[in-house]
Predict the structure.
Amino acid sequence: MTTLLYHHPVFADHDPGIGHAENSGRIKAVENSLSNEEFDALNRREAPLIGKETLLTTHPLAFIDWIDEVAPVKGRIALDADTVMSAATREAAYRAAGAVCQAVDEVCTGNAKNAFCAVRPPGHHAEPAKPMGFCIFNSVAVAAEFARVQHNLQRVAVIDFDVHHGNGTQAAFWHDKDLFYASSHQSPFYPGTGYKNETGEGNIFNAPLPAFATSNEFRTAYSDYLLPALTAFRPELILVSAGFDAHKDDPLAQLQLVDDDYRWITQELLQIAEAVCGGRLVSALEGGYNYDALARCVGIHVRELLAA
């Protein structure tokens, strides 16, 4: 049993333009971090293209066709104020979702114990029919449905520790009690969702944290609220929206997490996965905009996956 790492060169070619926070420097920092010899045990895989029929479990055909049609052959096109497509973006988005789904396939069939998908663009802000917040397709939401369709799972959970609330995942799961979503995030903040009274069918658990909240508030939110809810749900698979932008050094937000918080939350999630779903856990990169902090914290996260 091994830890899989999914990646592809096209993730560095997705280019939203000079000065854009979600740029190729992020994925290059992750690549460099995971190239150290301590990560030689990773089973490295090329992220595959996802089939349109799999995207259809979450995104309507009209939306997928629109993304295909507006994708530029050269230059760039802005889908909204934050979300930009370049010539490589369509392929990158298809491979990002494809990576998470194939990782789910490998973990659910017992060919791997867990996986990390070093992908971009990120996904958790993408609603079923709306790209936003740097995101095109919602890779973890698509992967959750893929797990249910292809592997006959009933209960799938997503844990999201990105500093921004994953409004897209929440929207996709809102009416389905067998899809669990739990998020810690800065609030009030972009995208303006994620309040504690947003509960869906009793399957949505939000832990909004005020600006400048520290490790103590973060860990308390998980220990007292989010992790007990996850355990009680008893998922058959855990997916992680792994954003590292709640770090104190990140330029886009004001939470004050430190490196060790990412070790702690990864260990906690792995322990629950081992207890309730045979260790099945797949993690996908979301945010993180300080290259050094991102590289260190991804390394910490993946080191714990390898040690599980």
In short: The first helix runs from residue 10 to 13.
